[in-house]
Amino acid sequence: MLDSFHDTRLIKRIDINFLGEDDSPLSTLSSSALKVIEHLEANREQFIEEWKNHNYIHEEDIYKDRAPENALAMYHLFVRSLTHTLSLQEIQKLADKVAHERAEANINIGDFVYNVNLGQSILIHFINRSGIDVKDLYSIIDVLNTTFNEFTYYAVKKYTELKEKDLQEKVLYINQSHKERLSLLGQMSSSFVHEFRNPLTSVMGFVKLLKSGKNEPMYLDIIEHELSQLNFRITQFLHTSKIEFVEKNKKDVILILLIDEILDFIYPSLLDGDIEIVTDFKYTKAVHASEDELKQVFINILLNSIDAVKLMSSPRKIYISCQKEEQTIKISLSNNGPAIPEHTLKTIFEPFYTTKELGTGIGLYVCKKIIEKHGGHIDCQSDATRTTFDIYLPIA
C-alpha cells in the first residue's frame, strides 16, 4: 500500500511546485487542487468507510480483507495525480497487484469493476462538497476519471491475461492427461475382458436356469448383483478415458449415508463371505466432492478387502471409520486379511500392478487419482493383524 500523506508537507510541496505568482489558469487549478486535497484528507476515513459499506464483496473472496487497503491505495493515486507527481507505472503496479488478487480469488471481474466505479462516484460526491468553483470542478473530475479509467483498464487487461493463461494451462493439462488415459486404455482392454466375462457368464447361466423353469428368487438376486458389479467395472473403465474438469459434479456428500448405500450394494458379497462390518463414524458432516467418484473409491477398496478376508478363517472383519484431523477428514478402511508384503506396498497404487490372477491392476490407481483430484491423498499400511487404507480429504 502507498504511504499515507502528511497534510502539512503535502501542502507545502504543492505550494512550492505549482502555485504561480500571477492569476494564471495553472495557479487557479493548483489552488483548487490544494483545496480539494485538504478537503479529502480531512474526510478520508469517512470516504473509506462509505465505500466499504456500499461495495460488493463475495463472501468466498479470499482477499476480501484487502479491500479497504486497496481502496486507500487507489485514493492515494488520485491525490498524487492532482499534484502532478503520479506516473503511469505506479497505476500499472497497483492494477497488476489487484488483478492477481482477483484472478486468484476466482471472483467475477464485474464485481471489481462495480466497486471501482463506486469508489469513483463517492470521491466525486466528496469533491462536490469541497467548495471549489464550478469552472475548476470539471478539471478536477477529469483528472479523477482519467486516473480511475486507466487503473480499471490495466487491471482488467492483466486479469484477462492471467485467466487466459490459467485456462490454457488447464486445457493443456487435461489434453495431456487424456492422452495418457487413452494409452492406459489400450493396455487395459485385454485384462478387462476377463472381468467383464465372469459376471456375464454367471448371468447367462442363471438366465438359462430361469428359462428351464427353475424360478428361484435367489437367482434374480444373484443376477442383479452380478450386473451391478459389471456396471461398476464399466464405470471404472470409462472413468479412465473421459475428459473432465476437477470441479465437475461436486456437491455436499454425507459420508456416513454414502457408506450405508455402498454396504447395501455389496451386501450379497458380505453375506456370502460371512464377513462382519464394524463402523465408527466420529465425523458425520458433509464433504464437498463428487459422490459417484467417492463411491467408486470406497467400493473398489471394500471389494478388495472382501477378497482379502475370504482367504482367512473366521472371524472375518472389515472396519470403517471416519474422523476429523485438523482441517482434514480421515476415512479408514481396514480388514483382518493377510498382510501385504512390504515390497508390494510400494507399488500398490501403480497402474497394472496386481496380485490377482485375473485382475487388471487399475482399481487402486484410479482410486489414487480420484482422491488426489479432490485435493487429498491415500496411503496403505499392512501388518499381520490388519491392512488399512487411509483416505484424507480436505474439509470444504
TrEMBL record:
Arranged from A to Z, the UniProt key words for this protein are: ATP-binding, Kinase, Nucleotide-binding, Phosphoprotein, Transferase, Two-component regulatory system
Q: Which reaction does it catalyse?
A: ATP + protein L-histidine = ADP + protein N-phospho-L-histidine
Q: Enzyme class, one word? A: transferase
Give the InterPro entries listed for this entry. Answer: HATPase_C_sf (IPR036890), HATPase_dom (IPR003594), His_kinase_dom (IPR005467), HisK_dim/P_dom (IPR003661), HisK_dim/P_sf (IPR036097), Histidine_kinase_N (IPR018984), Sig_transdc_His_kin-like_C (IPR004358)
By its UniProt entry, which Pfam families does this protein fall under? Answer: HATPase_c, HisK_N, HisKA
State the PANTHER family in the record.
PEROXIDE STRESS-ACTIVATED HISTIDINE KINASE MAK3, SENSOR HISTIDINE KINASE
Q: What protein is this chain from?
A: histidine kinase
Protein's gene: kinA
